[in-house]
From TrEMBL:
<keyword id="KW-0677">Repeat</keyword>
<dbReference type="Pfam" id="PF01344">
    <property type="entry name" value="Kelch_1"/>
</dbReference>
<protein>
    <recommendedName>
        <fullName>BTB domain-containing protein</fullName>
    </recommendedName>
</protein>
<dbReference type="InterPro" id="IPR006652">
    <property type="entry name" value="Kelch_1"/>
</dbReference>
<dbReference type="Pfam" id="PF00651">
    <property type="entry name" value="BTB"/>
</dbReference>
<keyword id="KW-0880">Kelch repeat</keyword>
<feature type="domain" description="BTB">
    <location>
        <begin position="26"/>
        <end position="93"/>
    </location>
</feature>
<dbReference type="Pfam" id="PF07707">
    <property type="entry name" value="BACK"/>
</dbReference>
<dbReference type="InterPro" id="IPR011705">
    <property type="entry name" value="BACK"/>
</dbReference>
<dbReference type="InterPro" id="IPR000210">
    <property type="entry name" value="BTB/POZ_dom"/>
</dbReference>
<dbReference type="InterPro" id="IPR015915">
    <property type="entry name" value="Kelch-typ_b-propeller"/>
</dbReference>
<dbReference type="InterPro" id="IPR011333">
    <property type="entry name" value="SKP1/BTB/POZ_sf"/>
</dbReference>
Amino acid sequence: MDVTNEVHSNDVLRELNDLRKRAELTDVVLVVEGRCFPCHRAILASCSPYFHGLFTSDYAEAKQERIRIQDVSGVAMATFLDYAYTGRLQTEPDQAQAVMSAARIFQVRITCFQAAEYMKDHLNVFNCVDVLMYADMLGDCGLVEASKTYMASRFDKLALHPTFVQLPLNHLQSLLDRDDLMTNSEDNVVQAALRWVHFNLAGRLQHLPALSRSLRQSLISSTLLVEMESKLPSTWSKLVYSDSSTQRLGHVRTELQIFLREGNDLHHSAPCYDPSAGQLYAINMPENMDSFSRSVTVTPDDQLYMSCDIVTRKGWEVATRQKNFYQYNHLLNTWQPRCEMITPRVRYVAVCGLVYLKGYIYAIAGDETKRTAERYDPSCDKWTSIPPIPRPVSSKFCAVTLDDSIYVI
């Protein structure tokens, strides 16, 4: 007889995890920030070269029943142990760095990679500078570049955020050198550099000549050039600027133009045109999206949202999910699922009107009554029902915004 129980290993790990939680049959206690974590040496050693070396060495800790772990937070330790016993890594954005640091200490490469990918996926204006400095400290080139790319894509907002002035000089220079800065004008770049200098004028004024070499003189207003020179001590030479006349990416109005195919087939990508580069490229679409049934809207900060019908086939049976809502991640070229709509309103041929107005996204009609509506709040990923429109609309209606109002035609 040669029979394999496919779920045996999962069952064993599940039972070992239950034993750990009850502190039964454990043979070591890890002490982290005053918290005690009963564990099994074999489990720790099997998934961590650090613990394998510790428990098989001649060090005193190898035989101790209680071992103090330094430079690891209690939350990160708990997260790591959950991963060791379940294979599932679960954390919050504000704990990702602590988890990654613990994974590096314990030499668990896959967890380091997963934590880094998690941080890339959760970059925002509030944390990108901190993530960049953390990644630079670790020497994680991939995370450094992802942070810089994000910072370039949100430059005007980032330059006004308090964390901007915390950037080290070398990273600020490399950021100001980029052609892909999303900024309305070169004057904004100059103002950002001056803001960074003024944060610590005594210590940073000496760096103004170095920063000026990243600023494109032909694109700077004459008024601001005069202001720049006025900052210099009388004994200094005039500033030397970059002679590049290449406009930053944000100087030219660029609109993401997506050409969604029509037809009764399922498509996994859509062609797009980038006016600034004059190039066609493709973005991935949600798997099994019905090409007939989708609505798209773009927010003022260039966030792309789509409601669509997802088709699932099992043999001759076809099932559809009609409340799907996605946000496009341009850094990863993926559509990330967001909170489903309250009412199914994406059906074959008939789709909802999707529009943005003053911080909210509105989904109108597309349902069986052709009247209901709801509102999405991106800040908390939540849909809320709102009053229906006065009368049903046809399947070919459109919704547009003007000033403070939505018009359904």
